[in-house]
Amino acid sequence: MPNKGEVVLEVKDMCKYFGVTVALDHVNFTLKSGEVRGLIGENGSGKSTVSSIAAGMQKASSGEMFYLGKPWAPSTALEAQKEGICMIVQEAGTIPSIPVADNIFLGHEDLFSFGPFVNHPKMVAAAQALLDELGIGIDASVVTGRLDLQQCKLIEIAKAMYWKPKILVVDETTTALSQTGRELLYKLMRRLADEGGSVMFISHDLDEMMTQCDAVTVLRDGHIIGSLNKDEFDGDVMKKMMVGREVKGDYYRSDMDPYGEEVVLKADCITTRRDLLCFDLELHKGEILGIGGLSECGMHTVGKALFGYEKILDGRVTVGPQHTVVKDVETAIKNGMAYTSKDRDHESVGLPGSIRDNIASTGYIKNLLVGPIISFKKEKAYVEKEITDLSLKCASQYHSVNTLSGGNKQKVVFGKWIGGDADILILDCPTRGIDIGVKASMYQLIYKMKKEGRSIVLISEELPELIGMSDRILIMKDGQVTHEAMRADHPTEHDLIEYMI
Ligand SMILES: Nc1ncnc2c1ncn2[C@@H]1O[C@H](COP(=O)(O)OP(=O)(O)O)[C@@H](O)[C@H]1O
Ligand SMILES: [Mg+2]
Fold first, then answer.
1. DSSP β-ladder status, 312-319 and 263-272
2. Whole-structure pTM over 0.90, yes or no?
3. CATH number of 263-497: 3.40.980.20, 3.40.50.300, 3.40.50.1000, 3.30.110.70?
4. Does 433 sit in the ligand 1 pocket, CB within 6 Å?
5. Residue 403 Cα, ligand 1 centroid: separation in angstroms?
6. Tens of pLDDT along 315-326?
């Protein structure tokens, strides 16, 4: 390991272009040994781009890098990994169809091979030893696809730690982790820094940044705006640097508007294969119903079950005045329901399509001209408006969603449903990985939908968001509702946490 305080990575005058998009504009940046360095900036500001270039995943358009004093231009992520730079990517970084151990040693099978054969039991044993040493309670021999998002992220962390990296990049990983998962990651990051490694830590959670980092660097529109050391940390200063203007801390709704008496969606003692046992819920017209709890409490399954996406073994979900049974996703959509998943890459957006197709797909009824004929003019204007409302950072509505940064993808998911015709929206962590500027506009849109008489189930791991936005909050633990809080009672985070653990 390099000596503490020594410069390990130097990025000089780096530019990166994607067609007409300028992702990095003459970026200069140094990273020292022994530090946990935060990178913050709004969605699309260039955080993933600069770190993934250092980690060999893509190449810069111009500029230079120096790693431990020598010119650095890795051509692949494997090469960077072997030299000591590992990155945990923002999007899914594991292959579902192979065992955990194979994911951990992907591309490095030669470690366990003799001749053309891979000694698989030996590989599994090595993976298990690694997981155990790191305190990650996962069986190395199971197929990765059977694990959830949090467990997959932990595997990626283990995979990186195996190489005892000199630089570890952690890109928006914590939003996928529960509190226990986060604590574990923080511990490993700190351990690495103490041993003389360095961490580049990317997150939207400023509190997390301020507690975990030794210094932060702020990016905006591909430029480095500046850096702050720990003793200079101040949330408002950071926000201002990120968006280039003053941002008020409070962006939730402030009203006490009531909701209707009519029940528009009802879960009647539903039981699912995992998580839920005789779960009840009533959603009213014009209500924002918050559901919160720790990551594994079953709240994400509630969202899926309501939308007909999770098999219901007993009990039923009914929608609308006719109490239509929601037996599958098709019935849900036909009855005016919409759903956004927490796991956006796998479940939400038809990612291969263009931004335009994705957004237009749910608004098509509105954009009809006569009969089944779509007015392209109306549709184009509709998509443009959604892009402006959400301040989506893209060069054109015809570009593929795949080219967008993680947070901007989530905006597409949101834009898709908000503009649509659904009366009942089930939003599972809708603001996960979204920067503050856009969060604020999303909250306004959610409130606007309530005012229009639409009903919303807001599932969230962030208590301030639940408290700020909901008419009523259900707190869950182990698949059961442990507490119900009303907006009028002004619940505090402290009141609610008690029922979660
Ligand atoms: N593969 C790509 N193709 C086209 N544009 C991209 C690609 N990757 C990133 N971009 C664009 O580059 C900019 C910076 O993106 P990114 O580094 O992912 O932002 P951040 O991680 O800060 O949210 C964004 O405008 C994004 O849309
Ligand atoms: Mg990113």
1. antiparallel
2. no
3. 3.40.50.300
4. no
5. 7
6. 999 999 999 999
